[in-house]
Fold this sequence. Notes:
Layout: H1 3-10, E1 14-16, E2 27-31, E3 36-40, E4 43-48, E5 51-57, H2 62-71, E6 76-85, E7 90-98
Helix pairs in contact: 1-2
Amino acid sequence: MNATKILDAAGLPYVQGAWKNAPKLPYIAYLMPSTTNIAADSKVAEVVAPLRIELYTERIDKEAENKIVAALEGYVWDKSDTIYLDGEDMYVTYYEVED
């Protein structure tokens, strides 16, 4: 899976991992945290490496969410609830994408 291709299509600023100096909201941080390997004949037959997209916004932002959804067309993905980060005074929504 080409994470940068998906994120470029979303049209929002993004970084892998964490921002040192975050831009103005909304923005994205993404991770490819682990793999789930599918084995056959005593070897890895397929590597499934999910992409985790974290959308940070100052309010519930359907426009930003729709940009991500449009960029994910053709992929299998799930979206979590939007969570308010009290100490950061912002919201985060998680997307998990599989190839």
